[in-house]
Amino acid sequence: MIEVKNLVKKYGDKVAVNNVSFTVNEGEILGFLGPNGAGKSTTMNIITGYLSSTSGTVTIDGCEILDDPKGAKSKIGYLPEIPPLYQDMTVKRYLEFVYDLKRVTLPRKEHLAEVCKVTKITDVYGRVIKNLSKGYRQRVGFAQALIGNPPVIILDEPTVGLDPKQIIEMRNLIRGLGKKHTVILSSHVLSEIQAVCDRIVVINNGQLVADESTEEITTNFTGMKRIQLHIDGNDNTVLMTLRDVDGVTRVRKVMRTIDGFTEYIVESKAENDVRKAIFRAMAKVDCPIVMMRNAEVSLEDAFLRITAGETQVNRKGGR
Amino acid sequence: MSAIYKRELNAYFTSPIAYVVYAVASFFAGLLFVATVLEGDTSDMTYLFRNMTTIIIMMIPILTMKLFSEEKNKKTEQGLLTAPVNLLQIVMGKISAAVTVYALLMVLFIIYALIISFFVTPSWVLIGSNILGLLLFGTTLIAIDTFISSLTESQVIAAILSIGAGLLLTSISMFKNMVDIDFVNDIIDSIEMMGRYENFTLGMVKFSDVIFFLSISVLFIFFTIKVLERRRWN
Ligand SMILES: Nc1ncnc2c1ncn2[C@@H]1O[C@H](COP(=O)(O)OP(=O)(O)O)[C@@H](O)[C@H]1O
Ligand SMILES: [Mg+2]
Q: Looking at the predicted structure, is the pLDDT value of residue B62 above 80?
């Protein structure tokens, strides 16, 4: 449905998006994840035809955004990071304007009523936009994207600045879209995306660093165990020995502890228990373990590690 | 009727902008009308029409300043530029809304003409050519000032630059022959607006003058489109 190929965007000398490729299948909800400044908005602005790419192509349902901008744009509903709301208009006037602007042919009154019902803004229909709360404004922005029932919906950080209750509502709304629409949803919060998306594309510093199903990402990282150790001994010896232990995938020295030992984090696959092996190995090199405990692995940790480029993840980019 | 045209027109009349422009313009036009026509005991509105240009140079920037600068500043342009419409439609929608608000101001001169008609039959042809001239003059300024609005995010800067551009264009003939370079003087001659406008105030509707104003308008519509296009590639 959406095909992004070798997308590059430079702002002057700065490369904001660097050779990003991915596809989104019909009916799929794709999460577009990355820290602030990763290039998410830039990519979405190119997909929707607001910006032009330096090189690379974007195809929406067979329409190339540069060759057939009208065709491509008419298939997309876009909620930018800052919703394009005219502050002085009432919700009604604004949505009617968007309806006219997009040259929608569905019956106007019924369609607008439907969109308002879905986004739960019916009760503010007659209000002036600048007097609405942030949550309502975001939903009016959402409604605007839904007008005309476009097959593709693109949402740039739709939950930023909302309170937890509003976030849950927004999430349910997006989930509801997945049945009839193809959706791209960006966020810098993994849990947010994990809650609604079928697949996650991770971008960092303009580069695609992961493209996996949400399930894969979750099992990859919850399928990992972490052990926190305090050890007395020479740093190099300890590090080398730990790395040689069977089943250990990664070892990191963290810091000196207050009582004069050194803290390490050791990672292993979930199915391997490496604690006994570590004990024996340390005993052999005479570096006593003074503390050992299991450490939590959170999804946010996983995300930070992917974006720091530390982990080997399945790269399916360029598909 | 395009969605953008409708929205802009609505915005003019739901905000004070159109009314402020009408109020100020009619106030000064009224002063001129009383001072030159009624006090002067004449049916000749030439003086009034000639001096209208200064007022219009001040008022049109109020109509055009926000057309593109505010869209950029408030990020609403993202909605327009990702909708299935092309840049020409966007620019034309906005310019035609400003021209509509401006054209309604012409009612004022029809009222003045009606007042005169109580005393003496006015020269309707002359008034018609004056109004046509003022319309063309204003439309051209709207196109130029809309272009200026597309260059900046600040309405204030757009307004100031627009007033400056209007003053420069109408007074440029003063600079003619200041330097003894034919080339420069030729350029001044070719972009000089006042002489052409004055033809209309004298009742001379020349095809070449009409074409002049229209082509400058088209040129600046084209420039505005180019600015918007360029911005996507920045
Ligand atoms: N108009 C611009 N001019 C120059 N640099 C920009 C511009 N817009 C964004 N950038 C830079 O490009 C990078 C990506 O920005 P953006 O796409 O907004 O990231 P994200 O949406 O993931 O936070 C950032 O480093 C940002 O500073
Ligand atoms: Mg962003």
A: yes
